[in-house]
């Protein structure tokens, strides 16, 4: 199972990014689970979303505490103690940071355990969408590349599906598709599939209840 955690701020499209990841993985033949976690925060407040990917049914539920991949849409969250985007990660966790700074600079400045993957998604979104803070497509594309098993055509179809449900115009969807193609070629691909099997769930046999006549007037249990 692959566990992906996405961090960003309200209005950046973090929830939609997790949905695109889940949809693309489903189109690629995987089981997928995606959901956000936020309350009544206003635009700009830290939010988090989760995506689980597996070849078997996903029985695990709840927030992801030990992610395989962490996608950070806003580097300032690394200085937010409450947001804590790197919590639960270790040297084996793939960490992506949307930033104009180099991976080496980010590792040193934020005292990270390993060298992060870096790309300036803000610049790409400004180039293609003319909206530098809408990161949904770009961040999902990064996640798809880091997972390593999603082909570009699966990703593009997922973007069409998810953005179509949000009633975006054909022009805006086309711009997002071009953004995805651009970002897809700029991010290295990793192969993280098959890191862990889904947890087994023990079966509990059903108890056979004693049948009594209605006239007895007593419960069977």
Can you tell me the CATH superfamily?
A: Pyruvate-ferredoxin oxidoreductase, PFOR, domain III
Largest sheet features = 6 strands, mixed
Tally the helices: 6
Please, how many domains? 1
CATH architecture: 3-Layer(aba) Sandwich
Strand order of the largest sheet: 2-3-1-4-5-6
Mean pLDDT: 87
Report on this model:
With 221 residues, this protein is of the alpha/beta class. The protein has one domain (2-198): Pyruvate-ferredoxin oxidoreductase, PFOR, domain III (Pyruvate-ferredoxin Oxidoreductase, domain 3), CATH 3.40.920. It has six helices and six strands. The chain has helices spanning 14-27, 103-109, 121-129, 136-147, 152-165, 170-186, and strands at residues 2-9, 31-37, 46-54, 69-72, 94-98, 117-119. A six-stranded mixed sheet has the order 2-3-1-4-5-6, with helices on one face. The longest helix has 17 residues, at 170-186.
């Amino acid at each position: 199972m692959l566990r992906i955690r996405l961090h960003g701020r309200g209005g950046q499209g973090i929830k939609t990014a997790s949905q695109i990841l889940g949809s693309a993985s489903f189109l690629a033949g995987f089981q997928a689970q995606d959901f956000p976690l936020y309350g009544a925060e206003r635009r700009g407040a830290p939010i988090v979303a989760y995506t689980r990917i597996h070849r078997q049914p996903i029985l695990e539920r709840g927030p992801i505490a030990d992610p395989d991949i962490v996608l950070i849409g806003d580097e300032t969250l690394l200085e937010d103690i409450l947001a804590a985007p790197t919590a639960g990660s270790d040297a084996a966790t793939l960490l992506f940071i949307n930033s104009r700074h180099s991976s080496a600079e980010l590792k040193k400045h934020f005292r990270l355990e390993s060298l992060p993957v870096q790309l300036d998604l803000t610049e790409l979104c400004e180039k293609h969408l003319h909206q530098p803070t809408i990161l949904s497509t770009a961040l999902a594309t990064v996640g798809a590349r880091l997972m390593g098993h999603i082909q570009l055509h699966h990703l593009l179809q997922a973007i069409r599906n998810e953005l179509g449900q949000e009633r975006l115009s054909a022009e805006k969807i086309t711009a997002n598709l071009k953004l995805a193609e651009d970002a897809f070629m700029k991010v290295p691909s990793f192969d993280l599939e098959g890191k862990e099997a889904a947890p087994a769930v023990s079966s509990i046999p059903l108890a056979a209840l004693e049948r009594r006549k209605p006239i007895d007037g007593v419960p069977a249990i």
